[in-house]
Amino acid sequence: MPSEYRYVAIDENDRSLSVATGTPPTPGPGELLIDVAAAGLNRADLLQRAGLYPPPPDASPLMGLEVAGTVIAVGPEVNGWAVGDAVCALTHGGGYASHAVAPVGQCLPIPRDFSMGEAASLPEALLTVWHNLFQRAGLKAGEKVLIHGGASGIGTLGVRICKVLGAEVYTTAGTAEKCEALTSLGATVAFNYREQDFEAELTELGLNNQINVILDMVGGDFVQKNINVAAPEGRLVSIAFIRGFEAQLNLAPLLMKRLTLTGSTLRAQSFAQKAVMVEEIMTTVYPHLESGAIRPVVDTVFPLEEVERAHARMQEGTHMGKIILQL
């Protein structure tokens, strides 16, 4: 077991962050203990820090949903993993730490030639993209997909996965530079939402009523526009509502076009559901990670002690890809 355990604590009074020391976790049945080299930031971490996204009762109270590192202990009932293996994993909290446990069904091998920072960028985005676009929305090769928030960790990886798996990708982002980067990742067109109305732009391109699948983390006034541009039998999936949970909607197109409106959060799903996602990702996506055809975008790497700066960068919304904590 590790001799030292460091983790990020939240001050209950002012919600500031600091690195503390304590007793390391131990792996239970079906779990790995990971010596963490890097941890990925997610917007859910900011919400948890603010007290707006409490962890499930059985989860670690610490922030951090994804890590990469080396297996240093294996719990009972674990097969296929050994001490010394390189691993990236979706944790059940507790990733902002020098050591973390993860259910074995949520652990993935680190793809060839990936840095620990790149590997830590994978688990949350991979499972979110796979579940929502492919399991829930049933995206198929040849279909048109619109991904909002294209410059996020989920968005950048989603654009690349969809392109490699044969979809025609459209996306939105907040600057011309981000839009240019997204077209280099494989988007057919990236719309600058600060200067362009994506509904009007798609209509001008002759693509109104032709978008088969939409992944939306924006919400608010984007919801009506999504409904308007969706193709008959279109599937619209919401995973966040950055512009608000409420919107005034005309739902007539829902009937006329036979649309499906759905949504999900990853953390609320069971270990068994996430294990199925991992199995399908290993079959369908991992060969493209191993070949280098799909690679995450890392924006910035901060030492664990600079976690406040890392959170500030995410809060600003100027990043492109994943923000990483390095240990």
Attribute tags:
30% helix; alpha/beta; oxidoreductase activity, acting on NAD(P)H; Rossmann fold; Quinone Oxidoreductase, Chain A, domain 1; 6-stranded parallel beta sheet; 327 residues; NADPH binding; ADH-like_C; globular; 15 strands; 7-stranded mixed beta sheet; 2 domains
Descriptive account of the structure:
The protein folds into two domains: 6-122 and 296-326, Quinone Oxidoreductase, Chain A, domain 1; 128-263, Rossmann fold (3-Layer(aba) Sandwich). It is built from eleven helices and 15 strands. The chain has helices at 43-49, 116-120, 123-136, 153-164, 176-185, 198-204, 222-229, 252-256, 271-284, 286-291, 307-316, and strands at 6-10, 17-21, 31-40, 66-74, 86-90, 99-103, 107-109, 144-147, 168-173, 189-192, 211-216, 230-238, 260-263, 298-303, 322-326. The strands form three sheets. Strands 3, 4, 5, 6, 7, 14 and 15 form a seven-stranded mixed sheet that branches. A six-stranded parallel sheet has the order 10-9-8-11-12-13, with helices on both faces. It has a two-stranded antiparallel sheet with strand order 1-2. Helix 3 (123-136) crosses helix 9 (271-284). 48% of the residues are buried. The mean pLDDT is 97.
Distance between termini? 17 Å
Structural class: alpha/beta
Write down the CATH class of the largest domain: Alpha Beta
Number of extended strands:
15
SSE order: EEEHEEEEHHEHEHEHEHEHEHHEHE
Can you summarize this structure?
The protein is α/β, with parallel strands linked by helices and 327 residues long.
Set down the secondary structure blueprint.
Blueprint (H helix, E strand, L loop, with lengths): L5 E5 L6 E5 L9 E10 L2 H7 L16 E9 L11 E5 L8 E5 L3 E3 L6 H5 L2 H14 L7 E4 L5 H12 L3 E6 L2 H10 L3 E4 L5 H7 L6 E6 L5 H8 E9 L13 H5 L3 E4 L7 H14 L1 H6 L6 E6 L3 H10 L5 E5 L1
Parallel strand pairs: 8-9, 8-11, 9-10, 11-12, 12-13, 14-15
Antiparallel strand pairs: 1-2, 3-4, 3-6, 3-15, 4-5, 5-7
Helix pairs in contact: 3-4, 3-9, 6-7
